[in-house]
Amino acid sequence: LTGDTRIRPSANLLVATTEIFRARLISDNSFLSDLRVVIFDEVHFLSDEERGLAWEEAVLMLPPGVQLVCLSATVPNFRDVAGWICEARSAAVHAIATLNRPVPLDHKVLAGHMLHPVGTNAEGVVAANSTLSEQIGRRKDQAALREVANTLQALLRTSPELRPLIVFSFSK
Prior knowledge:
Layout: H1 18-27, E1 37-41, H2 52-61, E2 67-71, H3 78-89, E3 108-111, E4 114-117, H4 130-138, H5 142-158
C-alpha cells in the first residue's frame, strides 16, 4: 500500500510505508485481529524530524500481542531505542547488533558503461569513501553533496568522453 497504489490490501502480507500503516491503524483497524508481526525497516526514521512522529505513533498504537521486528543499519543508540519500545509497549525486547554488513553501503556513479565509486583522494583519483556514504545517506550534509559534485568533475576531467553526463539524485 502506498498513497497512490493499493494491490490486494486484504492479503496475508501487507507491505506499506509507515505513514500509510499508521493511517490505516487510525482509520480502519479491522485488520488488527489477524495481525501477528510488524516489520519496521529503516527504523532510524524514528528520529527523523519530518517522519518520526508517524513511526512513534505506529509503534504505540499496535495491540500488545503484536510482535515487532525493527531493522536498521544506522542506529548507534539501538539500546536506547529498544528501551523505549520495551517501556512503551510493556514487552520484552531483544536488541541484536552486528558490525558485519552483509550488503556494503557504497555510492557509485554510472558514467559511460562503468561504475565509479563516489569520493576522490588527495590526488584527484576517484576512490570509495564510507564516511561519505553515511553522509549521503543522511542527505542533509552539504559537504557530502559537494563531494559528489567533486567526483563528477574529476570524472569529466579525466574522462571527457563521458560527456554529456546526466545525474539523477533520488531524495525527498
